[in-house]
Amino acid sequence: MQKTQMQKTIKSIAGGVTAPRGFSAAGVAAGIKTGAKDVALLASDRPADAAGVFTANLVKAFPVLVSMRHLADGSAQAVVVNSGNANACNGPRGETDALAMTAETARLLGMSAEQVLVASTGVIGQPMPIDRVLEGIRRAAAELRPGGGAEAAAAIMTTDTILKEAAVTFELDGCPVTLGGMAKGSGMIHPNMATMLAFVTTDAAIAPAMLRQALRQAADRTFNMITVDGDTSTNDCILALANGAAGHPPIEAAGPAYADFCAALEEVCRTLAVAVARDGEGATKLLEVRVLGAATDADAALAAKAVAGSSLVKAAVFGADANWGRVLCAAGYSGAIFDPGTVDIYLGGIKVAENGGALPFDEQAAALTLEQKEVLFTIDFKQGSGQATAWGCDLTYDYVRINGSYRT
């Protein structure tokens, strides 16, 4: 796909959530997990416009509920996160513990508790070791620094095997602007809003309503197009803070500046989302599914995500079996409207099906393509101009091993 002029001017940089001006972060080990960082703190040096997108699961963890309330005024200045415990399904104590995390963060940083957002990830239904968490928050507050993004990214990991960070620079109205992010996610990934946890910071100035709109759009095109195992978490959230430190005129309506901001936000979110799919629990391969020629973008998205999430497709990718029938089958039950008799399917550059039927192809070449670290299926419905891309991973023996003993 050819890049637009704006996409060409977006430059990737290092730094994650602390790349934008005015943000500091820290990550410490508080003993929630064994021998790993598990409490992260992210703060702006000034109040920021803020937005969030949260899990559509009816069962919502208490940090999700608290953050939703604290975002009612479209403003926040800090985020506190713990890993190792989801603080979900914990009764009244869960809300008390989530509020205690925001209150202690606010006390240490000199702001109101309503200016603090909270997120948790880990085992569901286990009481939060709140004394250890609060002590971790105190240590993290003492260690906040502008270069602390990587430590914070490490502290939000659970079964993740790699840090997930991204940052870009671009211009708004001739002013240099930076946008950064971090995410965690490896298992329990089938978002209906965003990834398991993701955090975005920017020194851009944008009104809360516009930030909410941009964040929802970016989530729909990136985080909502990944899947690892078909499970939508109780704790999914993506939180965004925009502190305006870049100094350009605020974005208050749709226009060129808003479009440029959305392009940069989507770039960061896509990088993080693909990293989550690549790091799926037990995964050995990244699976990308592109649907072209659909009647609508919505139809394309339904089909792409169904194929990427199909256990049979994922198992075939793991086994390097070019079983393209599973791809068409998954598209067929996705809810997308299309004519099965017009569908072409490609594995990498190899056409494996034409007009919904078998096509002779080199099985050995197809198997070699499936043995690569990145596997691409392209599905052309030949029905219109709708298109979408989804990302997933293969389904391996290790996925069962990891999740069969997650609590132990």
Structure description:
It is a single chain. α2 (62-70) crosses α3, α6 (208-221) crosses α7 (256-278) and α8 (297-309) crosses α10 (324-332). It is globular and about 70 Å long. With 408 residues, the protein is of the alpha+beta class. The strands form two sheets. Strands 1, 2, 3, 4, 5, 6, 7, 8 and 9 form a nine-stranded mixed beta sheet that branches. It has a six-stranded mixed beta sheet with strand order 13-12-11-14-10-15. The protein is 34% helix and 27% strand.
Can you give me a brief rundown of this structure?
This protein has helices spanning 5-9, 62-70, 92-109, 130-143, 149-155, 208-221, 256-278, 297-309, 311-319, 324-332, 363-370, 397-404; strands at 11-12, 23-28, 39-54, 75-85, 116-123, 164-172, 175-184, 197-202, 237-242, 286-294, 344-347, 350-354, 357-358, 374-380, 386-393.
